[in-house]
Amino acid sequence: MTVPRQRALIGAAGSRPCTLVVCRGCCCGDARKHPGYDHDWQLTRLRTAAADSAGAFQVRTTDCLGPCDQANVIVVQPSATGRRAGGRATWVGFAMDDDCTDEILSWAMAGGPGVAAPPATLELQFIKAPTAARKGRIGSRRS
After folding, report:
1. Which candidate, 35, 106, 116, places its Cα nearest to that of 78?
2. Which of 29, 32, 62, 83 fits 39 for a cystine, CB–CB 3.0-4.6 Å?
3. Between vectors from CA 65 to CA 87 and to CA 60, what angle results, nearest 5°?
4. Which residues of 34-54 are buried (b: 16+ CB within 10 A; e: fewer)?
5. Among residues of the chain, what percentage have pLDDT more than 90?
6. What is 105-134 written as a DSSP string?
7. Which residues, other chains included, contact 1 with Cβ-Cβ below 8 Å and sequence gap of 6+?
8. Chain segment 76-122, per-residue pLDDT in tens
9. Maximum CA pair distance of the chain?
10. Would you give the distance in Å from CA 86 to the centre of its chain?
């Protein structure tokens, strides 16, 4: 019987921090769709917290994650440590209010998926990732 070998993570992948992927495509971050909410403030807050986290987590934006009817969407990706512990990307929908932003930040600071349990109230906003057919339309940009 052959025992499968674990793949060694090399380079940046071996120490990748928890990553918040923030949708800022057609619906997420759109003041016309969600008037009265300061989308720029939320993104600035997330980026400022990441910069102050001493590398605990990072923030990226993407053009469109897909589930536009559940905007704003943020995906919390596990760190390399979290992934090795079984953590998987977690999709959070309707992520617009201050409480949700606070909970996402506290979870990312604590290590994110696979390292720390999410706040119980944040779990109520977890959504399913789009299907594989829809993922082909999703584009990403680093920022």
Report:
1. 116
2. 29
3. 70
4. eeeeebeebbebbbebbeebe
5. 62
6. HHHHHHT-TTTSPPPHHHHTTEEPPPPHHH
7. none
8. 999 999 999 999 999 999 999 899 999 999 999 999 999 999 999 99
9. 61
10. 16
